[in-house]
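[SOLVED] Need 3D model of a two-part complex

Original post:
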Amino acid sequence: MTTTQDTSSEESDVQEYSTHPGAFANHLFGGLSAGAATLILVTLAAVATFLFIEAWPAMSASTAELADKVHWLGDESGETLIATIGFLVYGTILISAIALLIATPLSVGIALFISHYAPRKLAQGLGYLIDLLAAIPSVVYGLWGAIVVIPVLQPFYEVLERYLGWIPLFAAGDDGTVSGTGRVAMSAGIVLAIMIIPIITAVTREVFLQTPTLHEEAALAMGATRWEMVKMAVFPFGRSGMIGATMLGLGRALGETMAVYMILSPGLTFSPYILQSAQHNTIASYIALQFPEANSDGVSALITMGLALFVITLLVNMAARWVVSRRSEFSGAN
Amino acid sequence: MKIATRTGAVLSAAALTFALAACSPSNEEEPESTETGTETSAEETEDAMMEAWRAGFQGLNADVTVNYDPIGSGGGRTQFTDGATSFAGSDALMDEEEYGLAVEACDGDSGAIHLPLYISPVAVIFNLDGIDSLNMDADTIAGVFNGEITSWDDEAIASQNEGVDLPSSAITIVHRADESGTTENFQDYLVKASSNWPADETSGDWQGAAGESGPGTSALVQIVQDNVGAIGYADASRAGELGTVALKVGEEYVPFSAEAAAAVVDASPLSTGANGENDLAFELDRTTTAAGAYPLVLVSYTIVCQQYDDETERALVTEFVKYVASADGQNQAASAAGSSPISSDLSARVTEILDGIAAG
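Solution:
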């Protein structure tokens, strides 16, 4: 179909409908939906522009100049803006990775149970419950994590250190023990995992439910067990959806502020010790921590960090899109 | 507190607006004439005290509307020195540059002055079973918080607490993760009173050993409460059931109290950079040996002009600040926020200064 044909057919449509009583509503709705779609692009562009303009004073200032104006950025202490962003990006990715490592297998398991194993009634109830988890505000997760979960987890960390302390991840601090309060990256990762499970589960469940019944029945007819059927029919079909869901979860974990803010004893290092306090912090939590008392240069520096987070999130989402589009060609969908 | 002005504004003669950093946003459009001040400190307890003062002042002056508009800290003093607001509240003193800017912002050449209207002791809190109070000198506290003293039965602590059964467990240091006035005053005390604190200059950011930390007073107190062996510092009103440290002042150990906190302010000299005798900017004497004084305190000032260009503005500001300085206002704050009332001498002095403020 060529462009000319396209336009002419559109024109004829317009003529045909111009006297129709619904013509105005038809145009109006078309305009509104196009406007809504444009608005999201404009908003994204506006956010990016805002971040860049506001971050510019801090980005263009020399390190010494900036350290002079913003007291939590020290030139000689090695905590320049770039270094601080480095620590924070590392912390953000580390904690999100812990969350993802815990949440992904659990979510896929839950989704599979709901879609293929549980009796219909139970599956429905469980689905509602999982969706309900997603509705809990993150500040509540943070409070619950800080007051209830951490004291329970702390003894396990000691056990983990005793038997697996030779792995750097679980190593003890200089005083020979792990954090006595449990306010460490591992705790933040675990609570974040609980927060992103509903998202990953909801999406993977929907994808698994889309598996063509014919594929499943064909597998079963060949004498496959249920697990073999899942392996042969459900997983290949849902792989891209699973990856997309995981990336959605990662997106939330990267930007999550309150829970980390309330659970973690922050620090700025590149250390791998996830059972020691004062080692890591995330970008979002750092911004929340420093913003209330920051002066205008400080705010600019914080917005530079926000820009870094924006870029990371964008990259993650683009990577996810790319993986999904590449995989979809090979999935059972076609 | 609900402020009804939008529709029934007939009765409101004026509105007094001020802003306090952190917490509790409530913005209301002001009627006809408006006074604006900015309160810039970020301590939770001061929110409570501002609420109490606002309520109290409006109870006495039904036709005046007091607004409450939280803005960021640093911005507060800037707004005042820009001339955008009529008064400001701050728990740090103005620096030389700000003094200069204030001269331009205020009417006449007399500039702005500090009035100390909120005094709050900062308690060193700890969580040990069966121990309510420990004695420590400044060096010991600095040693604990810079990580040199790591167990509760360390000789440095034990020697000052004979007869107390100290456990051999490790000390968990808890500090504020955010920048705070409590941290600043605590570290100012350690910088000046101890010989072994690693930093030479006071800062609102933590400078001691990396330990556990939480954002805000509530989180810090929560961490100390949840962990036996933890030690931290917080506004004394938040100490609750936790054990507290009595500071060594002279040869005595002084536990925190409202009177002891007010006493150190009365014993402190005025800052050398002060703007004339009416500028009650105290150089807090952390090393005082005055009997019964507790040097670990946080003082918050109200910054006002010595001369306003408008009579209504002057009247509103002085009336409000006078109420805050009165026994009534101070008791309101003490019951709402657990602060220490300023001494009656200081209150009288503040009232006298306020009466001297001119309108040009």
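Edit: Chain B has eleven helices and 14 strands.
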